[in-house]
Design goal:
Elements (H helix, E strand, L loop, with lengths): L12 E2 L5 E2 L5 E4 L5 E4 L13 H11 L23 H16 L11 E3 L6 E3 L4 E2 L4 H12 L9 H7 L12 H8 L3 H25 L4 H14 L8 H9 L11 H16 L9 H12 L9 E5 L2 E5 L1
Antiparallel strand pairs: 1-2, 3-4, 5-6, 6-7, 8-9
Length: 316
């Protein structure tokens, strides 16, 4: 899960538009098939530890023909990592996450979702599981209101600020859930959800993955881990999972083998999942990501077939 508990968040980090990025909490709810749906909130100021792939090649080229023999033992340069941010690959990522989070490939149907799942984090809603008790739902509605001041949720901002850090519904009931569902029909609210998802989870995961020299599958593994675990300084956050993997293997940007490193990362991810009962079913790794890795499908080329919680999915 993410760092800390309700009311305990990492230090604010200003975003490009001046808003603060804060820590989020993971949440789990029954999906349409009665299986856990997890969503985490995380502020991601990831320290990029990778060595640029071009540095090795540049050093070797500048050494000339009389370079010492030791220069030939430099680690191999990492291949240029393909991007999960390619539109077609990003669509695949959204479907993969939705299969685990919602038991459905129709990720765009989740804008309207909202309920209190009884996890102590108030209302959980929307595309990535924004929560009223963990600050990110407040940030989302603030962004929406900044762009569309007269929106149907704007009147709840004082209540959202008051309940932030708790599981309280004070000032939100009884109308908030129905108004959220109405707002979800507004393309501007959908766009706000997309933008917050990208700012907090997707873009930092892709950035770190590219810095580590890993391809689309590895970048997706990072993204899925951030969605579930958030980030911070606790031992099951994304950064801690990555550090655990780095202790076992080097990423391509540091001269390591991509498959070896990704296996180490997925091992660390499974360990983190098993630390909490709500995440103890590791099939989203074992019968999905690990399947792609064993096949050597490092760039998530279609067709793709996988299972999550025993259910089968396929993308042509």
């Amino acid at each position: 899960m993410r760092t800390g508990s309700i009311g305990s968040r990492p230090a604010d980090e200003p975003s490009a538009d001046g808003r603060a990025t804060e820590g989020r909490a993971a949440a789990g709810r029954p999906s349409g098939r009665g299986l856990p749906r997890t969503a985490a909130r995380a502020a991601l100021g990831l320290a990029l530890l990778a060595v640029p792939a071009t540095a090795i090649a540049t050093t070797a080229a500048s050494a000339g023909p009389h370079a010492p023999a030791a220069a030939h033992h430099a680690p191999p340069a990492a291949r240029a990592a393909a991007g999960l941010d390619d539109p077609a690959k990003k669509e695949i990522a959204m479907q993969l996450v939705s299969s685990a989070e919602n038991s459905s490939l129709d990720w765009k149907d989740q804008y309207k979702y909202i309920e209190d799942i009884g996890d102590g984090r108030g209302y959980t809603g929307g595309l990535i599981g924004f929560c009223s008790g963990t600050h990110d739902m407040l940030e989302l509605v603030e962004l929406y209101t900044k762009r569309e001041p007269d929106n149907i949720l704007a009147k709840y901002l004082p209540a959202l600020r008051k309940v932030d850090g708790s599981d309280s519904h004070e000032g939100l009931d009884p109308g908030y859930p129905k108004d959220w569902e109405k707002a979800a029909r507004d393309p501007e609210f959908q766009k706000a959800q997309n933008d917050e998802r990208d700012r907090v989870y997707f873009n930092p995961a892709v950035k770190q993955g590219k810095a580590d020299g890993i391809g689309v599958l590895g970048q997706f593994a990072y993204y899925d881990a951030i969605v579930m675990h958030g980030d911070g300084d606790d031992r099951t956050s994304f950064s801690s999972i990555r550090k655990r993997a780095l202790a076992k293997a080097k990423p391509p940007a540091q001269g390591g083998d991509e498959k070896t490193y990704l296996n180490a990362f997925l091992d660390a991810r499974v360990w983190a999942m098993k630390q909490e009962e709500a995440h103890s079913d590791t099939s989203r790794v074992d019968t999905a990501q690990r399947v792609f890795l064993k096949k050597g499908n490092l760039d998530l080329h279609t067709p793709l077939s996988w299972k999550v919680y025993g259910d089968s999915y396929h993308i042509d």
